[in-house]
Amino acid sequence: MDSTMASCGDNTALARSVLKILEGKWTFHVLAQLSKKQPLRFNELRRQLGNMNTKGLTDTLRHLEKNEIIDREVFPTVPVSVQYSLTPKGLEMLVVLAAMKQWGQKWLS
Q: PROSITE patterns, alphabetically (predicted)?
């Protein structure tokens, strides 16, 4: 295989990895809310997303935290409160999302 094909294969694998991070019904919505204001507490984020179900939001937040896109900070209050914010990696992801939006506006409108 020549170097062009190998490079294409590497790019495909990387793109697939990025898309895997972005998969999920609520991922874009969560990132959009955190891009507007952060940090956000769980219930504040949930309200801004139209009172989505708790399990769906929890799963989305765990997925993004596992991929180091968001940071989860726990406060030792009663009851425990948690807030979420974008990591540096998450902030860079916003640049990718903006580029995807531009491409969509140009080619899909």
A: HTH_HXLR
